[in-house]
Amino acid sequence: xxxxxxxxxxxxxxxxxxxxxxxxxxxxxxxxxxxxxxxxxxxxxxxxxxxxxxxxxxxxxxxxxxxxxxxxxxxxxxxxxxxxxxxxxxxxxxx
Length: 95
Ligand SMILES: [Zn+2]
Prior knowledge:
By secondary structure, the protein is α+β, with helices and mostly antiparallel strands. The chain has helices at 2-28, 71-93, and strands spanning 31-33, 42-46, 53-58, 67-69. The protein starts with a helix and ends with a helix.
């Protein structure tokens, strides 16, 4: 466990440029592709008959836009408290 922590601390300076790049990416392009539908705006399903990909339901995660606000940008926009509130609302709406 301590070796893992040591490796993490050693890698930390190397990760700083990555974090910086991510921050720049969030600033330059706040939207990322929706991971639930891969930017399509709808779910894909395979047809039972031929096994080919077909259009499924509209994606609710991104509201059919296929785009999602990046996590870094969301943090930047609202802060942690608002994010937790949004998380709770989303959780409730799924019930
Ligand atoms: Zn989506």
